[in-house]
Amino acid sequence: MNEPVRILGVPTDYGASRRGVDMGPSAIRYAELGAALRAMGLEPTDAGDLSVPRAEGRDPGRADAKYLPVVESVCTRLADRVRETLSAGGTPLVLGGDHSIAIGSLAGATHDADVGVLWFDAHGDFNTPTTTPSGNVHGMALAAALGRGEFGELDWARAPGLDPSRVALVGVRDLDAGEQAALRGSDVHAYTMSDIDDRGVTAVVADAVDAASGGDGVHVSLDLDWLEPTEAPGVGTPVRGGVTYREAHAALERVATDATVRSLELVEVNPILDDHNATGELAVELAASALGKRIL
């Protein structure tokens, strides 16, 4: 990867149910993200953070899709920034914030491009306002980008041209009943933690990369709750039984080797819940692996 990396922070937390994830971009930067990328020979530039309305004092609006107008505002602007970065020959590295920002990342990454998606997450993020048990939009991001349910009527949410057969979920282990049914009826490739247990992480990731690759490359969306909570304690929705530290690196190293990474996002780092910024530091390490860092 020779093109410069452009860092875009999106300090949101209204898409989630726990406060603090809006400080994720600062935590990842504090873990010396820029220095880590420069040490790899990359050319990072930090474009700062998007201006994001605070949730305090705001009415969440509808209970089945909380703060949706604010999500629209932020994701529309993020899509523009991602699209501009790609048009200029750069690689967007988006720092969240809660996972609702992926709606904007994907809208920008897929603009006038044939892009697949690798989604590393404990959760499916495949709910819609009809199926959600919480109303939190971070649990709907992938469904929104694919235009499922009422999101199909929202031009700002749908990622143009995104083909569900080119989307691969890796390591999911906590799915709501509505998500289970929706995923079974979709063309999305869903690889669970049981698949990783049975076959090993590199074999599963190889299949996921095969499914997502082609065209102009892949968008990689990495929710830090994908990892075992003892490895990544600073996340808002931890789920036991995730991947280990070494499995996570092996997975992202395989992505860097076998796929063309067009854009990358790191989400759901919550420093309030973290232990000495361990999760922020892990996010930096995994970003480096996804962008090509090797042991030797």
TrEMBL record:
The gene is rocF. The lineage of its organism: Archaea, Methanobacteriati, Methanobacteriota, Stenosarchaea group, Halobacteria. SUPFAM superfamilies: Arginase/deacetylase (SSF52768). It is an enzyme of class 3 (hydrolase). GO terms for biological process: arginine metabolic process. Coiled coil: none annotated. Belongs to the arginase family. It comes from Haloplanus litoreus. This is Arginase. Its cofactor is Mn(2+).
